[in-house]
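Annex B.
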Amino acid sequence: MSVPFTSLSPNNPVKDGDVQSLLKGIDVEVDPAHAADFHKLLAAFHECAEVVSQLPDYQPRADTARYPRINIHRPSKREQVLGQAWAHKFHIQGNPAGGALSGKRISLKDCICVAGVPQLLGTDVIPSWTPATDATVVTRVLDAGADILGTSTCENFCNSVSSFTSAQGTVENPFAPGYSAGGSTSGGAALVGAGLVDITLGADQGGSIRVPAAFCGCVGLKPTHGLVPFTGITSGDAVNDHVGPLARTVMEVAACLDAISGYDGIDDRSQGSPKHGSTTFAASLNAQTTNLVGFKVGILTEGFDNPAVDAAVKQAVLSAAHKFQTLGATVEEVSMPGHKLGPYLWTIQQRMAGGLNLMGHAAGRRGLYLTEFEQARLPWTSESFQRCFPATQNVIINSLYLTQKFPGLYSKASNLGRQVRDDYEKLLEEYDVLITPTTPIVAPRNGVRGASPLQAIEPSVGITTNTSVFDVTGQPAMSIPVGFAAAPDDPSVLLPVGMQIVGALWQDAKVLRAGHAWESNFNWKESVPGGKKGAKTRVSSS
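Amidase: predicted structure tokens.
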């Protein structure tokens, strides 16, 4: 420590007894003979903290001259679609020279930073905060020629896979009003599913790209952990953080992945990724035939043999998986018992790290920390806690409980997560991809804000049973639509079914190849159970 004890400021606020008070919080005591020394050390430490707190922040500068933000505003009631799908509307024109995403209309999940655009994060617990920088993925899609039309609604602090928890309002499923669009990338998935944008960039810490993709009939990819830098995106837990695209086709997802992948010199999650601009995901799909001769597909039994999986969803995904055989692939049932541990391990990791993150205790990573967000979010008060959606309150409660009662459990959960990852990797040495249902059911009815905590959380229970494990392990996983199934409460309402395709670490190309081959040869919209051609399957996008 560089602050000399003899030059401590006379206004130093550290008082006698502060050391003892701090240690009382963890139920330990300082040796009384050493108390005066630790008092001086703490006072010197305070002055060190004061120096750092007064320094100017260091963030990447957004190129607003090249990419000006036009007409930033909250959408009027007349401009809103699908309930409350938009968070903010604006326009940023992409690179006029064009690129792989030229002409594509893009929305951004409202946890992805755009300099000058207030971020709501689906909550009213804190006032909207305005980032000073652009997320790396924002700059990259603009460089690739895409136009950004706005930020799309996300769920409350990104802590739900339902679509009614945002303080800004409910997002409606584009195929049936009243039903969930999934979350937490709810607004973006609904916009893609309704054809109002071509691509949405979402974030996935437990299924938040793949779940809404499945519910809204679009393609959603959670890439290999670290393939795409998470710079400038509000974090849930660095171990689980993934950012990726949702679109109507696998080809669009592949083109977007080419545009956004690669280390950016900031996010340590992506240090092992290929050099930006070096990937050829879309070109490889264009160059390959859609036959899969020599390809091995494993139907993961643990992903289907779960009482939460609806029989109609199970049948639709199994039927879709066996269609790979007609493309020349070998399709076999395989078992990986550790798959069922995934939700348990994810819950421990996400609750402890996610709660610490919410309370401003994120640490241990090299990357861009969003200081404006921390200033807006902290400190927590009883009033702000009470205004949180119950799912966020539950994360904080669980985190505090684990910290006090199971302080070493995060470490063990991380080790066991690595074991599950290694078991998947071993299985994926034999099989090119694994198949599960993305979600165990089709979109449920939307819940109601203001309900009791149990009622508020119930619509999300069990939804991530097949998705969250791959946030723990980091393997690439993509949902593609493969048909329809009837809503459990109304057989006349047909809703999309998602099939999840999983690959080995850094084998995103195989996942994309399998999905592209399937969608190129089969029309998922024709896979209607019982020939219900007259069933309700679409709501107007206007």
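The longest helix spans residues 35-53. The chain has two domains: 5-53, 70-344+410-524. Further annotation is deferred to the next reporting cycle.
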